Amino acid sequence: MHKNPNKLINEKSPYLLQHAHNPVNWFPWCDEAFKEAKNSDKPIFLSIGYSTCHWCHVMEKESFEDIEVAKLMNDTFICIKVDREERPDIDGVYMSVCQMITGSGGWPLTIVMTPDKKPFFAGTYFPKHNRFNRIGMMELIPKLKEVWINQKDDVLKSAEEITASLNRQNNFKEFTKIDETILDKTFDELNARCDEEYGGFGKAPKFPSPHNLLFLIDYYKTNKNPKAILMAEKTLTQMRLGGIYDHIGFGFARYSTDQYWLVPHFEKMLYDQAMLLLAYSDLYSITKNVFYKKTAEEIVEYVLRDMTHLDGGFYSAEDADSEGEEGKFYLWTAEEIRNVLDKDESDFTSNIFNVSENGNWIDESKGIKDGTNILHLKKSYDNLAEELNISVEDLFQKITSIRKKLFNYRKERIHPHKDDKILTDWNALMISALAKAYRTFDNKEFLEAAKKSYNFILRYLKDNSGRLKHRFRDGDAGLPAHIDDYAFFIMASLDLYETEFDVVYLKNAIELNNILFDEFWDDENGGFYSTSNKNEKLIARQKEVYDGAIPSGNSIALLNIIRLMQITGNVDLENKILKLINYFSGFVSRSPSAFTMFIYALSKYFKSGLEIVIVCNHFNEVVNKSLQIINSFNETTKSIIIKTDNNSGELDLLIPFTSGMQIMNNIPTFYVCNNYSCSKPTNSLTDLRDLLSKQ
After folding, report:
1. Which parts of the chain sit beneath pLDDT 70?
2. What domains, with CATH codes, occur in the chain?
3. CA gap 593, 349 in Å, rounded
4. What is the pTM (predicted TM-score) of this model?
């Protein structure tokens, strides 16, 4: 460790603190750094990454901790470090630059730019010296210095052109009429890319992309296309069997490096757990396959055990690396398993989890099997039980007993680094997922965890003006919220409202949605910007709609507005919905399977909304039975409103169309409304079921 810390030492980000003792004179992103660059007439070396990024660690070890490289960097540049998870706005702008210049992107992201933030060079990982067909830092930096000194006019002109091109790229002017056929086109594209043998889409690497699966499940609910549910089942089953799943401690890794879901990139991200919990819960609601239920329960067990702050917020990620090696924490030798378990258990484990003396995977960096094993299954529990001639329940109990022994042994290893910052947007995804899982499995622990995280955000990450903040860590909340924070937390508010029917959640959703429109909405063209009009101005103000590792803020915002229009009956929102759809229509229509959450939201808009209003004195057994009946129908676009003596005044203001709906006969009364028309109210659960079955 370098003796004297640099200017990152007072930051809260775990990623920035990892670099605080580098010999590189790092600055955080701040005015001081840009003033220094102008005063010294140096270009800026911007390095963006995150604390659990494997190749970020590699580049740090090879270059940023190296005295030779650091000396060159300090002599040539003003150096700035950014945590992409803290500043997704900065990352979004410069990742677009990298993709535009090089045709690809990734982390660590390396940008060289002028003191006024305009880029002229971009790349990702660079080794210390030339290798991997990549130029090394020792060779690259002198070239960049020479260009900056001797060809500065050309550099500045290039930086201006790149910046202008970036801003043109952010204008979606092409309009295409979108109708329900886009749902079929999205399905056809996913079907064409689906790996029918191993699940997922494409070859390798394979990412979970749960929003693809949520779209397919929803498409099946509407169209009853068996291929849609088959693709979702195949993918979610193969992922759960594969090495991408942690069979000992639970939770999913970020992606698989191969086609088979065997060799993961071992880091675990909160957002993957949240989105996959949504997918497994949704799939179980259709199939009632206990395998999916157990997977959902195990995801929650992992998050609550390893990723939860005492006050309820959820941590961001766990690293792939421990002791300087990727995956070391998760790998097993056959000898270790024999030492931990008795012979019967060891033989059983080696058999079902495919453990080999020589190892069961090839480390591509070494090109050999090194005697380590990635635990994985090749058959489902049903098939394994049949093969072993035992019941599925007995099989599960035996696996559970062995798993606990292996877990306790593994617990004594050196753990991967945990990124313990708490992000509003990722927490909101987990809140939504837990609310959905509670409604699916009726596990009150899930609901309590969702509410605790929700209250954490209200307590620590919402200011007195009602605006959100982005990050909490080590007692400090800060950084401006971006579109994902608002959109995802509005979704979480709506999901908790439709779980508990507490008007507070609905009020929060409406208030935050108003802020989103006031500060992020482009009233001239449509669409939401990634940043507030009150935030720092960067070289471009982007609008993101691509649904990548997580859904885009615009996709979730579209879904929220559709839901709010349906719940509140506020038809004025439809103009905003149409403007948002039209703005992105040409872009999305070209390749809709890249925007599956946007298309998922569109599917809700295309369907006639079903509203069920329950008017009662208070919650009672009849109301609970009515909810069971309502939720038994797989109608994909419905909202439930419960009007009680305690909330009727507030509810009538928020949802004016309920003001005339009164209780009859002093017992729970049910109103079923569809396509702006309500049926005759009834007190009968049988009539309620009949009304729903006719919709």
Report:
1. 1-2, 365, 634-636, 676, 695
2. 14-169 (3.40.30.10), 181-327+419-606 (1.50.10.10), 334-415 (no CATH), 610-693 (3.40.30)
3. 39
4. 0.95
